[in-house]
Structure formats: structure tokens, C-alpha cells
Specification:
Blueprint: H1 8-33, H2 44-98, H3 105-126, E1 147-152, E2 161-167, E3 174-179, E4 182-186, H4 190-193, E5 198-202, E6 216-220, E7 223-227, H5 233-242, E8 247-251, E9 258-265, E10 270-274, H6 277-280, E11 300-302, H7 306-319, H8 322-376, H9 380-404
Antiparallel strand pairs: 1-2, 3-4, 5-9, 5-11, 6-7, 6-10, 8-9
Length: 414
């Protein structure tokens, strides 16, 4: 037998009211936030999916932003490269004109003035700064001037002119993530973009008796190569050739020294990261000297930059040297133009790839947004209908409770 107390109806009514209020409050919260899931226990499976979808959506949006930033950088860089190509083509026209030998000394001096101005414009392009204040052609050395100029006295000129241009950046590259564990490599090294010829260095020290005294690491064109204790110069040359660096190594048949040559137009970048292997071979100076101007005193170097070529052309004009213009200068200009065209084509290809990544990530973001919406967004029409029904039930409960307990103390004060 169960005892029924006089307060049982009141307690049941109060419990039903609290339950209705809770349901009504939950419906109001859903409509206010437009989210179906207010707490994890509402739908644990959907909540787990929703967290993963939202995390992936954040990453996709980041990838899209990275790719869009790259397209802007590539477009800006390509603009300066195209302008530099126009400058080099104009310099070549002047070289062809100055090599025919029919112009007077004054005419050649006048052409030298134009070439000097074109040289200044070329250096200005190489030292271009992006909208965020970073050097475009300085590699990852973003906050310094990519190329430094040295002024000096040049034969045939009464005023100081640009005597040499030295690279002040590095050959490191950045890897930008544009998809899940997929990266685009951004190579902004100016000593590759503005280089005219393949560079070769010829070691002047006999290396046949050299052996590595201990394990070490050398850096060749930005690629690190491990050296093991006991390696000789032939093993070193083989490791360089197999490293993937754009450099060919060989042993000079006359001097028995180590020779290095780039496979395309670029400046050699050599460094002892650990140990002193290249220093012992006489290729570079000690580790206190930084590349690329750390080559040993006994090393002979050939192959220069576009700036070197234009400077040599200007100096030849000032001297009236037709043979140099028609020979080495014109050949180096052609090589420099060819390299610049190749770099522009590479930059254009990178731009197109970045654009494709923007489009793909945009489509992926839309698809993931739909998944997030399916799992977490509220069916607004159904929610409003449910809330109205809950509110109606709540009002009906209050009405019934009021009728059940309509007697008050005032009813007995007659």
C-alpha cells in the first residue's frame, strides 16, 4: 500500500513545471545561438564530428589564406622580374649597337651614360621591397638590402660609378603549407634570379692526399652533405654530385684540386657547417667568413652576375673596346637574359599553382562548411514550432495548476 499525501499533487505539478521550463529554456537557447548542440551530452556523436569538422575548416581557411598571400607575392615579384628583363633587352640592343665599331668615342660615352642608368634601375629592381617591408630578392634575409653597391673610380669617367654589386641575402627558402602536409617552396634568392652565367671555381690546392679527420657537414648551394671520417676528395666529389644540389664536382687533372661548377646560372654558396673540410681543401676561408664571398685565396672563379655583365659593358663603352662588347659581354648578356626568362617562367608556374590551391581550398571550405551546418546548425522552422508547442504546454500547465489551487487564505476570511 502506498500512502498518498496531500502535497503529492503539488509536488507533481511543480516537477512538471520545472521540466517544461527546462525544455523551453533549451529551445530558447538553441534559437538564440542558432546551434542545435548546446552541450556535448545533447548528441555526443554529432558533437565529435562537429569538433573535427570545425578544426579542419580552420586549417583549410588558413591554407587558402597562405596560398592567396603567395599569389600576391609571386605577382609582385614577377612584375619586377619582367621589368628587369626589359632593361636587359635594352642593354643588349645597346651592346649590339656598340659592337659594330662605327661609332665615335663620344657616341660610346653617351651610350655608357644610358647603360649606367639602366644598371641603377636594375639594382633598384633587385633591391625591391614588398608591401610588408620585406626584401623580395633577399632569400629569407628579409629585413636587409638584398644587394649592396660599391662606388669607385672607373677609367673614362670623371665621376664615381657603380664598381661592383654584392649579394647580401642568402639562398635559404621558405616552405608554406597550402594543404594538409603539402608545402610550396618559396625561393627568393637574388643571386639566382640576377645571375648571368654558370659559376665555376677551380681549387688551387692538391687534394689527392686529403682525408677527413672526423665527421662533418658541408653546405653546397643550401644543401647539407654529411662527411664521414676517412672520406677522401673523390668520395667528397661523389657525395656532392649525388646530393641533388645544382652543382657538379670534379677533380682537376692538372692541379688535382677540387673543382665545382653550377648546373645553371647561379652563384655558388659554400660553407662548412660542421668541421672544416672545405677549408682544409682550400676552397673557402675559415668559418668566420660567411658565404658567398668566403672563397679561398688560391681559388680561381669564373662566371658573374647580370650586374657584373652590365658593369663590364659600361666600362668597355667608356674605353671604346668594341671587341670585348661583341665577344664576352654580348655572350654574357644573352646568358643572363636566358636565365631571367627561365626564372620568370618558374615564377609564373608557381603563381598558377598557388592560384589552383586557392580555388581548391575555397571549394573544400564550402564543402566542410556544409558538413558543419548539417551536424551543428539548427533547423530554424522546426525549432520555432517546437518552442511554440512547449510554450503552449507550459501555459496550459500553469492554467491547470491555477485551477487546482485556486483557494487561498482570503477565501476563509469572510
Amino acid at each position: 500500500m502506498h500512502r498518498i499525501s496531500s502535497s503529492m499533487n503539488n509536488m507533481d505539478t511543480q516537477s512538471a513545471l520545472r521540466l517544461q521550463e527546462s525544455r523551453l529554456n533549451r529551445a530558447n537557447n538553441q534559437i538564440g545561438s542558432q546551434r542545435k548542440i548546446q552541450q556535448l551530452r545533447d548528441d555526443p556523436l554529432a558533437a565529435g564530428h562537429l569538433v573535427r569538422y570545425q578544426s579542419y575548416l580552420d586549417r583549410v581557411n588558413t591554407f587558402e589564406k597562405n596560398a592567396a598571400t603567395l599569389t600576391d607575392q609571386f605577382a609582385l615579384r614577377e612584375g619586377y622580374m619582367n621589368n628587369s628583363l626589359e632593361i636587359m633587352q635594352r642593354v643588349r640592343e645597346l651592346a649590339i649597337t656598340g659592337a659594330n665599331g662605327v661609332y665615335t668615342e663620344d657616341d660610346m660615352h653617351n651610350m655608357a651614360s644610358e647603360v649606367d642608368e639602366l644598371l641603377k634601375e636594375l639594382v633598384q629592381n633587385a633591391n625591391a621591397i614588398s608591401s610588408d617591408g620585406n626584401s623580395i630578392f633577399g632569400g629569407t634575409n628579409l629585413k636587409s638590402t638584398a644587394f649592396e653597391i660599391e662606388m669607385g673610380t672607373v677609367e673614362g669617367s670623371g665621376v664615381p660609378l657603380i664598381e661592383s654589386v654584392r649579394y647580401n641575402g642568402n639562398v635559404d627558402s621558405n616552405k608554406i603549407e597550402v594543404d594538409e602536409n603539402k608545402y610550396m617552396e618559396v625561393d627568393n634568392a637574388g643571386n639566382r634570379t640576377f645571375w648571368a652565367e654558370q659559376q665555376s671555381i677551380f681549387g688551387g690546392r692538391d687534394a689527392t692526399s686529403w682525408q677527413a679527420s672526423g665527421d662533418g657537414i658541408i653546405s653546397v648551394d643550401g644543401v647539407q652533405i654529411a662527411i664521414n671520417a676517412g672520406d677522401n676528395v673523390y668520395a667528397l666529389a661523389a657525395k656532392i654530385n649525388e646530393s641533388g644540389a645544382a652543382v657538379r664536382a670534379s677533380i682537376d687533372p692538372v692541379s688535382n684540386g677540387l673543382n665545382l661548377e653550377t648546373t645553371d646560372a647561379r652563384q655558388l654558396w659554400l660553407q662548412d657547417v660542421k668541421g672544416s673540410s672545405l677549408n682544409e681543401l682550400g676552397i673557402i676561408k675559415d668559418s668566420s667568413q660567411k658565404p658567398p664571398y668566403n672563397l679561398g685565396n688560391s681559388v680561381r672563379v669564373s662566371g658573374g652576375s647580370m650586374f657584373d655583365t652590365v658593369i663590364a659593358f659600361r666600362n668597355a663603352l667608356l674605353k671604346g673596346d668594341h671587341e670585348t662588347i661583341g665577344g664576352r659581354v654580348l655572350g654574357a648578356l644573352d646568358s643572363g637574359i636566358s636565365n631571367l626568362v627561365t626564372r620568370i617562367a618558374k615564377s609564373g608556374s608557381e603563381y598558377e599553382r598557388a592560384q589552383l590551391n586557392v580555388q581548391r581550398n575555397s571549394a573544400s571550405a564550402l564543402a566542410v562548411t556544409q558538413q558543419v551546418s548539417r551536424e551543428g546548425d539548427l533547423d530554424f522552422t522546426k525549432a520555432v514550432t517546437d518552442m511554440k508547442m512547449l510554450d503552449y504546454a507550459y501555459q496550459a500547465t500553469l492554467s491547470n495548476a491555477g485551477k487546482m489551487y485556486n483557494n487561498t487564505l482570503l477565501n476563509y476570511m469572510r
